[in-house]
Specification:
binds 3-methyl-2-oxobutanoic acid, eight-stranded parallel beta barrel, AIPM/Hcit_synth_CS, binds zinc ion, TIM Barrel, alpha/beta, two-stranded parallel sheet, amino-acid biosynthesis, manganese
Length: 383
């Protein structure tokens, strides 16, 4: 694998981790539509499903392989030969395929999930990676619950998997437990203590149980990870995964990090709507980047500042993510500047005295109606 030190690979798992959300299941046709949209968006890897989990998922992974050509198509498996065989079969039409296999490495998983021991876990992981390596183009290994795995043991696991042939090593914070500095230090520890680490790409896969998925993923890349696993709108198990749109715009707007992705940001708003409607999963209005209010300003102080210069209150030009313009919402918290601006947009130029009168009436109306629409303003001017 050729490495470009500045490139951060975007691995989208909307169709696998995202689709695990109750009520978000898609049929094969819908998954193909999403995969094609992800290809246009510029993701590098699409995790299309977990083929052993059901015949429907197998069929969908196969269909995605036939329908898209640019991104690598990835299929999930446990560290179990039968899973790997089925994943390889589902990937056989992929232009470029990847098997994502792995096993739990934290003390919780070793004892309470596998009733096993550390040596046996490494043995099973190595066996799975070697087996998968002979069946597809690339192998990614995940150390499930790496977030709560002892760093020294995790380094041993990662070293053994890279020796066995893993091209990518995924360090999931499966339970969303790590603090950003802890997760960043974990990646830095692996960079320092795994002798063969430069032969593989380190991947982040962070869950959002404590609202830190995006911060942890960014801490990961700042310490040497070069792949981020994400979902559109941050959907996924429990509180979800790292949001694609958030990491893409963080890296784009912090150019001093000297990191880039291939994401075509102008498509983000449209992509968010597609996922929300297909997966029947509304986006919270205050969601970063793609929420309804992400570029809406409603307090008088902010509106006045915005009207003087957009960058007083916006760090991203909404056009960059495919939103036509920012919005000035008229509420009882709005000031005269916003009212005058809106009236001017509607073709009404008003003198200061008249503006004062209208503003008083506007406030009375806004206290009652909460949000004032253009029709209300026309009514106000006419009365
Ligand atoms: O959260 C997790 O650990 C996962 C793995 C299967 C990669 O989703
Ligand atoms: Zn996950």
């Amino acid at each position: 694998m050729i490495m470009d030190a500045a490139k951060v690979h975007i691995f989208d798992t909307t169709l696998r981790d995202g689709e695990q959300v109750p009520g978000c299941q898609l049929n094969t046709e819908e998954k193909v539509i999403v995969a094609q949209a992800l290809e246009n968006l510029g993701v590098d890897i699409i995790e299309a499903g977990f083929p052993i989990s059901s015949p429907g998922d197998f069929e969908a992974v196969e269909a995605v392989c036939r329908a898209v050509s640019e991104p690598t198509i990835c299929a999930l498996s446990r560290a179990v030969k039968k899973d790997i065989d089925v994943a390889a079969k589902a990937l056989r039409y992929a232009k470029h395929g990847r098997i994502h296999t792995g096993i739990g490495t934290s003390a919780y998983h070793i004892q309470h999930k596998f009733n096993s021991n550390p040596e046996e876990i490494i043995r099973r992981g190595v066996e799975a990676v070697k087996y998968a390596k002979g069946l597809t183009d690339e192998v990614e290994f995940y150390a499930e619950d790496a977030g709560r795995t002892d760093n020294a043991f995790l380094a041993q696991v990662v070293e053994a998997m890279i020796d066995a042939g893993a091209d990518v090593v995924n360090i999931p914070d499966t339970t969303g437990y790590c603090l950003p500095n802890e997760y960043g230090e974990k990646i830095a520890y692996l960079k320092q203590h795994v002798s063969n680490i430069d032969r593989a790409i380190i991947s982040t896969h962070c869950h959002n149980d404590l609202g830190m998925a995006t911060a942890n993923s960014i801490a990961g890349v700042m310490n040497g990870a070069r792949q981020i696993e994400v979902t559109m709108n941050g959907i996924g198990e429990r509180a979800g995964n790292t949001s694609l749109e958030e990491v893409a715009m963080i890296l784009k707007s912090h150019q001093h990090l000297n990191l880039y992705t291939k994401i075509q940001s102008i498509q983000l708003a449209k992509m968010s709507k597609l996922i929300s409607s297909m997966m029947r999963m509304p986006v919270q209005p205050n969601k970063a980047i793609v929420g309804r209010n992400a570029f809406a300003h409603s307090s008088g102080i902010h509106q006045d500042g915005m009207l003087k210069h957009r960058e007083n209150y916006e760090i991203i030009d909404p056009k960059e993510v495919g939103v036509e313009s920012s919005e000035i919402i008229l509420t009882a918290r709005s000031g005269r500047a916003a009212l005058r601006h809106r009236l001017e947009c509607l073709g009404h130029t008003v003198e200061p005295q008249r503006l004062d009168n209208l503003y008083e009436k506007f406030l009375e109306m806004a206290d009652e109606k909460k949000v004032i629409e253009d029709g209300d303003l026309c009514h106000l001017v006419a009365s």
